[in-house]
């Protein structure tokens, strides 16, 4: 493979993918990103100087722009990560999720199909459209069980319904038009460069500011956490070795109740930034009104990607969380401008905005 288009490469996971591909392969990366509120080019400073890195600012809903970018760069593969990604924002305003996640994925598929249909035989034979999706398409688990690749789809939030729609489109484009596609569905990511609307960075930053730490409901909902660099490696493995027509579940096998995640962050802050008078960060924990339709539990069975493609995570939740807290302590230069200009930590997702 010579060239890959990564959509959403200025976001949290996309930037980890771009950094990984530039650092650990010889492949050229074209980062195609609209630069929404969630994007941050500062997450890409370490690849900026590489002659294998190109940035194209474009909207995935703009078919003409996509045609130009495919024609200009002649990719061997596409890794499609661009999306609206925050469940709470999808509750307050679903329109952008329908537009970007569904219409945008459709527009990407059509641009890829046009390019692939006309490509030389050697490109055509190896081309792959890799769609990056979420475990949330499978719905909500009770206390037992794991999501596998054959679990029936049962999305329950505007975000997960839009991602499920896009997954169905991707499969349809392979079945109907023969476009070689591969899918991956991953659990909750965490790590450096995570936008502070999401649980882990929000709790670290609010903890440091001495603000209340808002835990939804009783804090008993469970998520299965994966360190973002492990996900980036998994995605590259799927894109370069995955079998077209297949889907792969990706997860860290690290289930935690939300309250345990938050108390874990508090303990790390107690150790790394002790407060005067022995005050504990956990005293800031505040239980708040639950997220509407809050999925109870997600948990991934990642045995297929391990058995068939040889990927497994290298970071435990404990080691990854420590690295993450330390990164936020060291990189206020990255997150303070976001708080100043884009999002200052207010509650989202109550549905009150209509
Ligand atoms: P993010 O919100 O951090 O970044 C999304 C990126 O997409 C941003 O750079 C944004 O500018 C870009 N984008 C949004 N709309 C666009 C448009 N119309 N045209 C072009 N670019 C656009 O998201 P993330 O957390 O990095 O997630 C990336 C992908 O991985 C998403 O598809 C998401 O559904 C999926 N995913 C995320 C997680 C997670 O825990 N964060 C887990 C599983 C799957
Ligand atoms: O499972 C994969 C998904 O994980 C991805 O597809 C999404 O893009 C990603 O945002 C993430 O979705 P979640 O809704 O699970 O992540 P979030 O960080 O928003 O919330 C994690 C859990 O913490 C969830 O149960 C809600 C809870 N929460 C969240 C926030 C922001 C709180 O209790 N308090 C908070 O302030």
Automatic annotation (TrEMBL):
<dbReference type="InterPro" id="IPR036291">
    <property type="entry name" value="NAD(P)-bd_dom_sf"/>
</dbReference>
<feature type="domain" description="NAD(P)-binding">
    <location>
        <begin position="5"/>
        <end position="324"/>
    </location>
</feature>
<dbReference type="GO" id="GO:0009225">
    <property type="term" value="P:nucleotide-sugar metabolic process"/>
</dbReference>
<dbReference type="InterPro" id="IPR005888">
    <property type="entry name" value="dTDP_Gluc_deHydtase"/>
</dbReference>
<dbReference type="Pfam" id="PF16363">
    <property type="entry name" value="GDP_Man_Dehyd"/>
</dbReference>
<protein>
    <recommendedName>
        <fullName>dTDP-glucose 4,6-dehydratase</fullName>
        <ecNumber>4.2.1.46</ecNumber>
    </recommendedName>
</protein>
<dbReference type="GO" id="GO:0008460">
    <property type="term" value="F:dTDP-glucose 4,6-dehydratase activity"/>
</dbReference>
<dbReference type="InterPro" id="IPR016040">
    <property type="entry name" value="NAD(P)-bd_dom"/>
</dbReference>
<keyword id="KW-0520">NAD</keyword>
<keyword id="KW-0456">Lyase</keyword>
<comment type="similarity">
    <text>Belongs to the NAD(P)-dependent epimerase/dehydratase family. dTDP-glucose dehydratase subfamily.</text>
</comment>
């Amino acid at each position: 493979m010579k060239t890959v288009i990564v959509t959403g490469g200025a976001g949290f996971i996309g930037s980890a993918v771009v950094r990984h591909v530039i650092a650990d392969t010889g492949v050229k990366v074209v980062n195609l990103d609209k630069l929404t509120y969630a994007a941050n080019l500062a997450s890409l400073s370490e690849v900026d100087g590489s002659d294998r890195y190109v940035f194209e600012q474009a909207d995935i809903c703009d078919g003409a722009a996509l045609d130009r970018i495919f024609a200009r760069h002649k990719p061997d593969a596409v890794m499609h990560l661009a999306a609206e990604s925050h469940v709470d924002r999808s509750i307050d305003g679903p329109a952008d999720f329908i537009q970007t996640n569904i219409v945008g994925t459709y527009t990407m598929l059509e641009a890829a199909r046009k390019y692939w249909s006309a490509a030389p035989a050697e490109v055509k034979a190896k081309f792959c459209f890799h769609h990056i999706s979420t475990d949330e398409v499978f719905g909500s688990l009770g206390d037992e069980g794991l999501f596998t690749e054959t679990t029936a789809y049962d999305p329950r939030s505007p975000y997960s319904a839009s991602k499920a729609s896009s997954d169905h489109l991707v499969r349809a484009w392979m079945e109907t038009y023969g476009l070689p596609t591969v899918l991956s569905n991953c659990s909750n990511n965490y790590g450096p460069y995570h936008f502070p609307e999401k649980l882990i960075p929000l709790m670290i930053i609010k903890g440091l500011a001495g603000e209340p730490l808002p835990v939804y409901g009783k804090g008993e909902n469970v998520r299965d956490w994966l360190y973002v660099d492990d996900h980036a490696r998994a995605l590259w493995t799927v894109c370069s070795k995955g079998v077209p027509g297949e889907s792969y579940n990706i997860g860290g096998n690290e289930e935690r109740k939300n309250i345990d995640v938050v108390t874990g962050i508090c303990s790390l802050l107690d150790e790394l930034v002790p407060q005067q008078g022995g005050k504990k960060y956990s005293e800031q924990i505040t239980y708040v009104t639950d997220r509407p339709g809050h999925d109870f539990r997600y948990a991934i069975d990642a045995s297929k990607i391990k058995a068939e493609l040889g990927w497994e995570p290298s970071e435990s939740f404990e080691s990854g969380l420590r690295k993450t807290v330390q990164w936020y302590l060291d990189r206020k230069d990255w997150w303070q401008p976001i708080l100043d200009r884009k999002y200052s930590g207010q509650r989202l997702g109550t549905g009150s905005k209509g």
